[in-house]
């Protein structure tokens, strides 16, 4: 029990700061002050200035919302597509339908997600909404395979056969029983999926996909200010640490929740 509390406390501690900055930062940022010398300290800039002479703390307050919201929305979109795909393929009695649904995903899994995003972005030039859709769809093949594998194992149990023999609807069988039984597997995968979305969104923004070159975005800050790393490191270190804390904290939170669920299952 003590280890579980420690895991939760550590995870929440890591997540709290970047999440609060992402949610409350933009309203608290206020108007931008006048620009000064690039990569300098002083004159009220307690974290210094960035490559364009803007206050780094002001940019940090503004830069988290895009990363966090796009990653969360992309993860949600991935499951909205992957869940019906995986459940339908696992519960259907038609082998040809399962092949049609799952085999194209095997091909897409072989292509790195970042490469897919960059290939599409090279022709469409997406904004934040487009980047959300790209990252979400890039995560669908992996998520659908996890859903399919978990649902296949559960659907082979006697309880599911009994539901089918009783004439229960597909919706009640798939969502009411199979979906509920696989929630722990989905919770574990959701932590990995959200971390992957954060990585992909941050990397895409670092490469200039979906954001303006001088946008207030943590990943863009890391990219645009790295030339002045040894002159004014905070413009790179602070946003990089916030992205890393959010990714690590998310993984630790889901891991702690799963371990807590296993302990409760054992005690019962």
Strand content: under 5%
What is the global morphology?
Answer: elongated
Task: Give the ordered list of helices and strands.
Answer: HHHHHHHHHH
Q: How many H/I helical runs?
A: 10
> How big is the Rg?
22 Å
Uncertain residue segments: none
SS-derived structural category: mainly alpha
User: For the terminal residues, how far apart are their CA atoms?
Assistant: 15 Å
Number of strands: 0
Helix content: over 70%
Assembly category: single chain
User: Describe the biggest sheet?
Assistant: none
* Averaged pLDDT: 80
Set down the secondary structure blueprint.
Blueprint: H1 2-29, H2 56-91, H3 95-109, H4 113-124, H5 128-155, H6 158-165, H7 170-181, H8 183-206, H9 218-225, H10 234-267
Helix pairs in contact: 1-2, 1-10, 2-3, 2-5, 2-8, 2-10, 3-5, 4-5, 5-8, 8-9, 8-10, 9-10
What's a quick, concise take on this entry?
With 268 residues, the protein is an all-alpha fold.
Write up this protein.
The radius of gyration is 22 Å and the shape is elongated. The chain has helices at 2-29, 56-91, 95-109, 113-124, 128-155, 158-165, 170-181, 183-206, 218-225, 234-267. It has 268 residues and is mostly helical. Helices cover 76% and strands 0% of the residues. Helix 8 packs antiparallel against helix 10 (234-267) and helix 9 crosses helix 10. The mean pLDDT is 80.
